[in-house]
Write a structure and sequence with these properties.
The complex is a heterodimer of chains A (320) and B (293). Chain A has one domain. In chain A, a hairpin with a 2-residue loop joins strand 2 and strand 3. Chain A has 14 helices and four strands. In chain A, 73% of the residues lie in helices and 4% in strands. By secondary structure, chain A is mainly alpha-helical. The N and C termini of chain A lie close together (6 Å). The radius of gyration of chain A is 19 Å and the shape is globular. With 293 residues, chain B is an all-alpha fold. A two-stranded antiparallel sheet of chain B has the order 1-2. In chain B, helix 1 packs parallel to helix 5 and helix 2 runs parallel beside helix 4. Chain B is globular. The termini of chain B are far apart.
Chain lengths: 320, 293
């Protein structure tokens, strides 16, 4: 943004993707699996960042979009025996539709009311999953069998349970979402979103339909989060109600705050950092939530701009 | 049991829920009204009150009433101290920005919950009631302690109302709520008022928890439901309105008691949450509140 040199920006993003590609061949098995998970969840954080970072709408209910994708994909595979690609599309469609409905309702409010309303809708979604435990598996969850997680195109088949295939699939999804987000935030639409964040009244006065733009942002964000959920269900083969709980609405907020809100690469940095912090500290203590809590407080107190946000402010003004 | 007595029992249970809920929600409402921040950690202050009540009452030997009274005094004071420190160390430095404070109180929620799990453990533990007198009704006997909880809560609510409307402290709090900057210009130490209000709000939740802990046990996750219900009460009652909060608490408590006797509790929660979300979307000032200035 601002007057960035596009070449530098694109080089940086392609470089990050290339680095992640190379890491597949270098990383030991354990870390390869962890990275696949991190990339799938970084998509979730990227979707959250679009709404929180660029439009300035703080939602406390994004777990419902993630789990709409998770269940949209997982249940169609589990109950209807759909193939992987159809199930993925179904998951994303569920998330986008849910985001449209929630957006139409929740965007009537703003500020603190928006946070509470989104949190309550997410709570309803969570309770519905528990209520229909006969189909969803409730808090026990469902395991998607290995045989249903194979894509067969023509004669070739891709087994998503194979670590390398799983890593590459997660990377492919992450790369697409990263580049799409980059394109969106550099577009006219993206600039309008930032304008809404900075001053909604003035943007309205300039003749932009702010409600329609915000709704489009909610739907895009919901669809990206649902894509992450759908990929998570298909790649790791487990769906459960804990993914719809409040905690999964807080985590993307934490990752984005940590990496840097309104930076394209921030969500990945935040997810990666937080995942490794908990992974390393879980060797000493099981008090995982304590770390999350302390991190949240320290972040809002001392680094409200996050890692990449601070770097952009100090040294690299061109960072997107 | 016939339908009539069954309904009466459900209503009595609902009344006990209402009494505790009114106190908890009043704390949340006070903090929101005066400081304009949403305290997501409010339910954890409730939990902390219950857990500390267990700790105090087991540390003191002798008649259960002694332990209970000690818990009723010590637990809220300790919770108030924790809240005061949290306000002083964190919220004040955020200049009470509504969004940052929500994130920060979410952090506090996780910290308090995890510490309770680490030091108190995952078990649910009971506290002995101070007396075990049963009131005999024609159809069933009912715990006298439960009815005394309702009385104690009503007393505290009246007391809070008197403090808010009849004393100088109450006037200072209302002045700060009405217009922070003008209050400061008149020499009111706004920061100290904020710290006090945040501590009092947490203490109200802690008192409610101490009152309820002889009926339902102390558990490290027990703060979740009161938080959600308090949100519901505060939103239905209109943010910052004392009368609305009490009316809404009785309404929600009774209907929660009666609905969950006849329907599945999960379904009751789904309906209640959805209705409240819709109220917030279509009538953000609440059912009893007036439009915001």
């Amino acid at each position: 943004m601002r007057d960035a040199s596009p070449a530098k920006t694109y080089a940086l993003h392609v470089g990050v993707i290339a680095l992640l590609f190379v890491l597949n061949f270098i990383l030991p098995d354990y870390h390869q699996g962890l990275f696949a998970r991190i990339m799938a969840l970084a998509v979730f954080a990227t979707g959250y960042n679009l709404l929180f970072g660029y439009v300035g709408l703080l939602s406390l209910g994004h777990a419902m979009f993630f789990s709409a994708g998770l269940y949209g994909a997982g249940l169609t595979v589990y109950h209807l025996g759909w193939g992987v690609p159809e199930a993925f599309v179904a998951g994303v469609a569920c998330g986008a539709l849910l985001a449209l409905v929630i957006g139409l309702l929740a965007l009537r409010t703003s500020g603190v009311a928006f946070m509470i309303v989104t949190m309550m809708f997410a709570q309803v979604f969570y309770l519905l999953i528990l209520y229909f435990a006969a189909w969803t598996g409730g808090d026990q969850g469902l395991v998607i069998q290995q045989a249903s997680r194979v894509i067969s195109i023509g004669g070739a088949s891709l087994d998503l349970t194979n670590p390398a295939v799983r890593y590459m699939s997660a990377l492919a999804l992450f790369s697409v979402v990263l580049l799409v987000t980059l394109a969106v935030v550099r577009s006219r639409f993206g600039r309008v979103l930032v304008a809404i964040r900075e001053n909604e009244e003035r943007t309205k006065m300039l003749g932009y339909d702010t409600v329609a733009n915000k709704l489009a942002a909610v739907v895009t964000s919901g669809a990206i989060c649902a894509a992450s959920g759908a990929a998570y269900a298909l790649l790791f083969g487990y769906i459960g109600s804990s993914f719809a709980s409040v905690q999964y609405s807080i985590l993307p907020l934490l990752w984005v705050l940590l990496g840097g809100a309104a930076t394209t690469l921030g969500p990945l940095v935040g997810t990666l950092f937080m995942y490794y912090v908990t992974d390393i500290t879980s060797g000493f203590t099981s008090a995982y939530l304590l770390i999350v809590g302390v991190a949240l407080i320290l972040l809002v107190l001392f680094a409200p701009k996050g890692i990449l946000g601070s770097i952009r402010q100090r040294w690299l003004g061109w960072l997107p | 049991m016939h339908f009539g007595p069954h309904l009466l029992l459900a209503a009595l249970e609902g009344l006990v829920t209402s009494a505790v809920l009114a106190l908890t929600a009043l704390g949340l409402s006070l903090v929101f009204g005066v400081m304009r921040i949403v305290n997501v950690a409010h339910g954890e202050f409730f939990m902390l009150g219950a857990v500390l009540a267990w700790a105090v009452s087991t540390a003191i030997s002798g008649h259960p009433a002694i332990g209970f009274v000690a818990a009723l005094v010590i637990a809220p004071l300790l919770v108030g101290l924790v809240a005061f420190l949290a306000e002083w160390l964190v919220l004040r430095r955020l200049s009470y920005n509504p969004e940052s404070t929500i994130v920060a109180t979410i952090g506090m929620l996780y910290i308090i919950q995890q510490l309770a799990l680490t030091f108190y453990g995952p078990e649910a533990r009971p506290v002995e009631p101070p007396f075990s007198y049963r009131i005999l009704l024609p159809w069933f006997g009912y715990s006298g302690y439960k009815l005394s909880v309702v009385a104690a809560s009503a007393l505290l609510l009246v007391l809070t109302w008197l403090v808010l409307t009849r004393t100088k402290i109450g006037m200072i709090m209302r002045a700060t709520q009405y217009d922070r900057e003008t209050a400061q210009a008149f020499g009111i130490p706004v920061e100290r008022v904020y710290a006090g209000v945040f501590a009092i709000g947490a203490m109200l939740a802690a008192i409610a928890a101490v009152l309820i802990v002889p009926i339902s046990q102390a558990h490290y996750l027990m703060g979740q439901d009161p938080l959600l219900l308090s949100f519901i009460v505060v939103i239905i009652g209109g943010l910052g309105s004392l009368r609305g909060t009490v009316v809404a608490a009785v309404l929600i408590g009774l209907s929660d008691g009666i609905i969950s006797v006849f329907f599945s509790p999960t379904l009751a929660k789904i309906i209640a949450t959805l209705v409240v979300a819709m109220v917030l979307v279509f009538r953000p000032q609440g059912l009893f509140g007036s439009a915001q200035r």
